[in-house]
């Protein structure tokens, strides 16, 4: 009789522990990364992320926008790392255009759990942005001007709408052109020292009508790295402004 009682107790304990483990595993499966860090690219600032920010915030994410100085890869990386240092846990790190090079350099930070490249450069260790930008013929609409006498590169005002933001209104593109933030051109020839896209989940967005970065370059980078690619048909280089929901969807997928 005692043996039967002991057996029954052991059976109940085993079932209880099994259910507890199953619930814990289910909880872990459904857990999402709550922190998102958005990094802008050259010629713009963080305000362009506003619509993406609103969507993510309404879905319960803690979103921080990095205002990088565009004065060097070192300076931009330092800005992003200061943000990551202050977070209370893992984050999805998102970069647009030049911001892709920056998040690659920051990718080794302990709080970076996954990466999202929004029509963004994705160099490997020892590679420069310029290596990839010059790997395919430039498109005629692109308007990056030679550096000025202080070494800063600007986007041609006359080409900004067609080359950078063709799917935005003329008025919005004109305002962005006149509000643009130049980048120190030597940033493009600085090699990255980290590339944790090798080991961390990585997602990429290819706007098929990008005229600033040839989409062939994007596909070549993302194919090499095994990045999960989402193509947005007809979208321009300003895809994060013109298609915020689609961009936010990719970021949310990267958080799970």
Automatic annotation (TrEMBL):
InterPro entries: AB_hydrolase_1, AB_hydrolase_fold, Sec-Metab_Biosynth_Hydrolase. Keywords: Hydrolase, Signal. Residues 1-24 form the signal peptide. It holds the Pfam family Abhydrolase_6. One of its GO terms (molecular function) is hydrolase activity. It comes from the Bacteria. Residues 36-249 form the AB hydrolase-1 domain. PANTHER family: AB HYDROLASE-1 DOMAIN-CONTAINING PROTEIN-RELATED, ESTERASE_LIPASE_THIOESTERASE DOMAIN-CONTAINING PROTEIN. This is Alpha/beta hydrolase.
């Amino acid at each position: 009789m005692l043996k039967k009682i002991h057996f029954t107790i052991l059976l109940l304990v085993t079932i209880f522990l099994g259910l507890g483990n199953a619930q814990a595993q289910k909880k872990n499966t459904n857990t999402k990364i709550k922190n998102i860090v958005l990094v802008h690219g050259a010629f713009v600032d963080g305000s362009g992320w506003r619509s993406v920010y609103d969507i993510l915030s309404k879905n319960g994410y803690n979103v921080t926008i990095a205002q990088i100085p565009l004065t060097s890869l070192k300076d931009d990386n330092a800005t992003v790392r200061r943000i990551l240092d202050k977070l209370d846990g893992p984050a999805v790190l998102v970069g647009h255009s030049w911001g892709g090079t920056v998040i690659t350099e920051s990718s080794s930070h302990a709080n970076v759990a996954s990466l999202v490249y929004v029509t963004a450069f994705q160099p490997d260790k020892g590679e420069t942005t310029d290596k990839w930008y010059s790997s395919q013929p430039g498109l005629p609409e692109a308007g990056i001007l030679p550096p000025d006498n202080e070494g800063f590169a600007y986007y041609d005002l006359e080409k900004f709408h067609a080359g950078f933001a063709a799917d935005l209104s003329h008025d919005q593109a004109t305002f962005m052109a006149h509000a643009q933030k130049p980048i120190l051109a030597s940033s493009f020839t600085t090699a990255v020292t980290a590339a944790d896209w090798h080991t961390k989940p990585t997602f990429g967005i290819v706007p098929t009508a990008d005229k600033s970065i040839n989409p062939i370059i994007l596909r070549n980078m993302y194919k090499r790295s095994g990045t999960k690619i989402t193509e947005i048909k007809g979208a321009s280089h300003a895809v994060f402004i013109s298609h915020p929901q689609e961009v936010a969807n990719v970021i949310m997928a990267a958080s799970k």
